[in-house]
Amino acid sequence: MQGDIGVARSIDKGATWQQLGIALDEDWHLSYPYVFNYLGQIYMMPEGSQKGELCLYRAIDFPLKWELDRIVLKKPLIDSFIIDHDGKYWLFGSDHSSFGRKNGQLEIWYSSSPLGPWKPHKKNPIYNRDRSLGARNGGRPFRYNGDLYRIGQDCGETYGRRVRIFKIEVLSGADYKEVEVPFPFEESSKGRNAWNGARYHHLDVQQLSSGEWVGVMDGDRIPSGDSVHRFLLGCASVAAVAGVIVLLGVLLGAVNCIIPLNWCADYSWKRSDTLLGWERRANVFSSKLRWFCCRVNRVPSFLRGRIKPNTYTGRLVLALIFATGLALSCAGVKFIYGGNGAEEPYSWKGHYSQFTLLTMTYDARLWNLKMYVKHYSRCASVKEIVVVWNKGTPPNLSDLDSAVPVRIRVENRNSLNNRFKMDPLIKTRAVLELDDDIMMTCDDVERGFMVWRQHPDRIVGFYPRFVDGSRLEYRGEKYARMNKGYNMILTGAAFIDSQAAFERYWSEQAKVGREVVDKYFNCEDVLLNFLYANASSYKTVEYVRPAWAIDTSKLSGAAISGNTKEHYKKRSYCLQKFTNIYGSLTGRRWEFDERKDGWDL
Fold first, then answer.
1. Could you tell me which of 43, 46, 81 has the C-alpha nearest to residue 59?
2. On the chain, which terminus has fewer CB atoms closer than 10 Å, C or N?
3. Which of these is catalytic: 79, 435, 444, 525?
4. In this predicted model, what pLDDT tens digit does every residue of 546-557 receive, in sequence order?
5. Helix (H) or strand (E) holding 284
């Protein structure tokens, strides 16, 4: 993969970025663009070690037009920077072309000008040590309170696993000394779903004219070389499957020899002239090879003598071998085609965002909640989890294994209306209302969030329903499928606009509906759908089909709606009541598979 140097601009301290274009494109890989100003000219020194030289470019029209100014060094230095210190210019870089420990080598050069010529440091190489100790540069050096700091990469587990900060105490032509200082950067607990779940290896910090500091850090969800590693493991699994197939063939009598018989010394059939010539060669290697082939071909007879397929033990062995082959086949497919294991967020118009996850529960469902928080807190776009605690003694936050902040909102009254209660502490516009007994993949959640960001004025969820006819009756998803359309989305698993949805739900118009919800302890999601439909003549719901979803309440025995028949009866009454108050949904119907993303099949 060949890299180019691109340019993006931010005018809001990095919250959003505008792509401006490609600044530098060469015939070799480019990275690590170190940019600096000298005598009114802007220079860039990118890493281009494949060229075998360290090149310096000068801006003709900053930031998109550059020309080669000079060759800094005839060495393939990587991740290099130049710093002005004590009246000299110092060039730091690593040379991996010579013998030494890759990612554990560091060299220093110095000059009276950043344009050279450069002299090597007396102690070069400064480091040639374990790659986890931060020898390779990890970003622009910076000064703080008069001290100079260098950023290094810890490449112990993989290339660029993390950055480490070093305070430079001595820097002269004859000596160099630095000490590591704490780097107060808390790694995410989201694992590979985090933007830097596998590694973060470059950091650039700058002090603005206002005195504020801004930092830019890169990150990755997969380790270096992960795709090659997975491909090799997949090939190894496929090879193992081939071995299992041969073994099964041997035991079942379908394979009588493993190596062609004409390779064996005791083969007595007619031979070709070429084979006869080969056999006449009196060398030790060919003799040993034929002897080995003969011994290998005795294996089938030996195995069939020990393992008889017609016996109970033989059948058990065959079943185990078959299961092993099946497991290896699945592993091979997963390694080759299954991806890197990260459930990444989806960008909308080049940007990412976050949402608040809100669930409502009580003390009898604590087991569900623990599993729920542990799973969903690892989803990439989840910013916070809000637990609406309706009844009983709430758990301690320390009881919940979460990768994001969790806030438990204890309610004074056990009401389903609490689900949509106004909450000024929620900092995101998007809220995912998700029952604590629903488990689905983070990728499904991220897809739902992506669709909501395209349609923030709608309820975007995973459980469609269809309401029609003069005799209103609540039915499940199967009925919507039969009618090839839907007009309602259950908010037990749906994205909503927290401000708009909560204001509608707690408006004076919705007061009668909230009383119905309290009376039947049901239908709060149905009410919200009617309120959305009443507020707009356009489409108000969007469906996203999950890859799979599990109702964990059936495992814990703490289902809120355990009696399905009674549950549907109450909801049918709600439909009739809400229709009389807010108008009918019957005239609304949206078909499945309307969107181009294919997620609403």
1. 43
2. N
3. 525
4. 999 988 766 655
5. helix 284-297
